[in-house]
Design a protein that fits this description.
Rossmann fold, 24 helices, alpha/beta, 6-stranded parallel β-sheet
Length: about 625
């Protein structure tokens, strides 16, 4: 029986059918069609055929010296541009070496497409050489995963992967590509659009809910904006600035949100949390009498925010401390594109699922028609008093003489010591606050957030959620490839820098002029700080130097950099710091500046984990 099927006519463009191609060529061509300019890829047995196709492509293939370095570089490329960065590795250990970089992108909502070679389909599940179930292994740390099972699906999968990675809440997508399908042939079908039933990244707030926000602002006396990385990934920095100008509400950010609002603006409270500004923490949760122990009752001295507008944040524990005490007396409004973040960590009074750029744009339109009458003068005066009382500050103390690696060189010249905060502050002055800064993880990361004032989105690239050491220099490479017009500097610790030091070879061979300023204190500084605070200074394997020669620097980063043909120098005295930094910045090549610092410095302010503002050391 013949059945006539009625089809609905649409204006959608038809898919394009190409000539017969190998699967590996289809993948590369699909990447080109997505506008990929470069990828960070380390070849191996299950991915070498794709590399053969890449040799005939317009895409720049950058060879990292470790797959983790490639994943970090690709993730930073995505953070710096908003477009998915791309990394690739072979199966087995090549793929597993990408895992940390994928997890980092997942935690910080960075757009990333990670491609891995896989053993032939006939060998999957049989324990073949260099086989791992990478699809299953990465499920908890990706936005989506693909295991290609049909050569005809390659073009569609690549298009979908890039769409998923960059839309909604951005994140990493994995494409696992068996070798036999790389070698198979077919006519590729190039899709003109993406059709993913059930996936709708275009979330828009209801006007009724947004009007409720305006009503809450009009009733508030002490409002604070608490903004996160969602402002940056949502490209909503301009809309945020307009909203702040119209409402005159002070702004604090998370570490991921640094640059979402200019930190030089008088309404900026910088960032808050464990090592954030004391005045930002007071503005949100109130000022309390400092407690000598956690058993001492809370005694509030001055009230904090009565309205907290949480935009594009996830109430991370490093921000909230003891979560029930975070803005305990305020009404909290939470706008986020990811509904799963609502009431996950902190219960809120008004949760709105929305793209933040859309929500802020609509709020700005509403405020233009219905201006906020209040200017919150008394509240801003209180904040100014807090700012004047507890700014970020540092100073040389007698304790620096405890640093064995410096004692032989200082010989009573403690006034010439370079403190890490001073080095960052000087770099900020010389770059006029315009450089893209990457970091590793530890004390130097926190000091960077404190002493480099960020005024632009996508200017501060750091591993915030995962907190992965070794991120800094590979990230600087990815950022410099993405933004060759910008000065890019990795502010790193000696522990973090050593974890991916091999990427100096990538920088030299690829002529990527990313700079590294190492704040070298010969210790795992942040762990050491906690040892001093909670373990009476007992060192649990946090010394990174040579125990046989504690008065000498180990390893020699200058000699190491020179072995990679990368220019480098060491600076130890304050009188030489500015000149050395300027020489680094003036170089048109990758460069390493080893800045020798004492290990006695602690990052202050400091709110111990799961404690309150009343427990803050400042």
């Amino acid at each position: 029986m013949n059945t006539k099927i009625r089809t609905k006519k649409t204006n959608a463009p038809k898919a394009e059918i190409g000539e017969v191609m190998l699967g590996r060529d289809i993948l590369v061509r699909a990447l080109e069609r997505e506008g990929v300019e470069c990828l960070f890829a380390y070849p191996g047995g299950a991915s070498m055929e794709i590399h053969q196709s890449l040799t005939r492509s317009t895409i720049r293939t950058i060879l990292p010296r470790h797959e983790q370095g490639g994943a970090f570089a690709a993730g930073a490329y995505g953070r710096a541009t908003g477009r998915p960065g791309v990394c690739m590795a072979t199966s087995g250990p090549g793929a597993t070496n990408l895992v940390t970089g994928i997890a980092d992108a997942y935690m910080d909502s960075a757009p990333l497409v990670a491609i891995t070679g896989q053993v032939p389909q006939s060998m999957i599940g049989k324990g073949a050489f260099q086989e791992t179930d990478f699809f299953g292994m990465t499920l908890p740390i990706v936005k989506h995963s693909y295991l290609i099972t049909d050569v005809n699906d390659i073009a569609r999968i690549v298009k979908e992967a890039f769409y998923i990675a960059r839309t909604g809440r951005p994140g990493p997508v994995v494409i696992d590509f068996p070798k036999n399908l790389q070698q198979a042939k077919t006519h590729p079908i190039w899709p003109s659009q993406v059709n993913l039933p059930g996936y709708n990244p275009d979330k828009r707030a209801d006007d009724l809910a947004l009007n409720e926000i305006i009503g809450l602002i009009e009733k508030a006396d002490r409002p604070v904006l608490y903004c996160g990385g969602g402002i940056i990934t949502g490209d909503a920095a301009d809309e945020l600035r307009q909203f702040v100008e119209a409402t005159q509400i002070p702004v604090t950010t998370t570490l991921m949100g640094c640059g979402a609002f200019p930190e030089t603006n008088p309404l900026s409270l910088r960032w808050l949390g464990m090592h954030g500004a004391a005045f930002a923490n007071w503005a949100v949760s109130g000022e309390f009498k400092q407690r000598k122990s956690a058993d001492e009752p809370l005694m509030q001295l001055k009230a904090g925010a009565d309205l907290l507008l949480a935009f594009g944040v996830r109430f991370d524990d490093r921000v909230t401390g003891k979560v029930d005490e975070f803005c305990r007396t305020g009404t909290i409004v939470h706008i986020d594109i990811d509904q799963s973040e609502h009431n996950k960590n902190r219960k809120v009074q008004l949760a709105i699922e929305s793209d933040i750029k859309y929500a802020l744009r609509r709020l700005n339109e509403m405020i233009r028609r219905r201006p906020i009458a209040k200017k919150f003068t008394a509240w801003r005066e209180q904040i100014q008093e807090w700012k004047a009382r507890a700014p970020f500050h540092y100073g040389v103390t007698e304790e620096v003489s405890r640093s064995e690696h410096m004692r032989n060189h200082l010989q009573g010249r403690e006034s010439e010591v370079i403190l890490p905060q001073m080095a960052i502050e000087t770099l900020y002055e010389l770059t006029k606050g315009e450089a893209i800064i990457t970091t590793g993880v530890g004390q130097h990361q926190m000091w960077t957030g404190q002493y480099y004032k960020f005024t632009h989105p996508r200017q501060f690239l750091t591993s915030a959620g995962l907190g992965s050491m070794g991120f800094g220099y590979p990230a600087a490479l990815g950022a410099k490839v993405a933004r060759p017009d910008k000065q890019v500097v990795d502010i790193d610790g000696d522990g973090s820098f050593l974890m991916n030091v091999q990427e100096l070879a990538t920088a030299h061979i690829e002529n990527i002029a990313a700079k590294a300023m190492i704040l070298n204190n010969q210790h795992l500084g942040m762990v050491m700080q906690w040892e001093d605070k909670f373990f009476q200074g007992n060192r649990g394997h946090t010394y990174l130097g040579d125990p046989e020669k504690r008065g000498e620097l180990y390893p020699d980063y200058v000699a190491m950099a020179h072995s990679f043909n990368v220019p480098a120098q060491r600076v130890m005295y304050k009188k030489d710091l500015r000149r050395a930094l300027q020489e680094m910045l003036d170089s048109d090549r990758p460069y390493v500046l080893d800045v020798v610092c004492p290990y006695t410095e602690h990052v202050i302010p400091f709110i111990p984990a799961n404690r309150t503002v009343a427990d803050m050391i400042y």
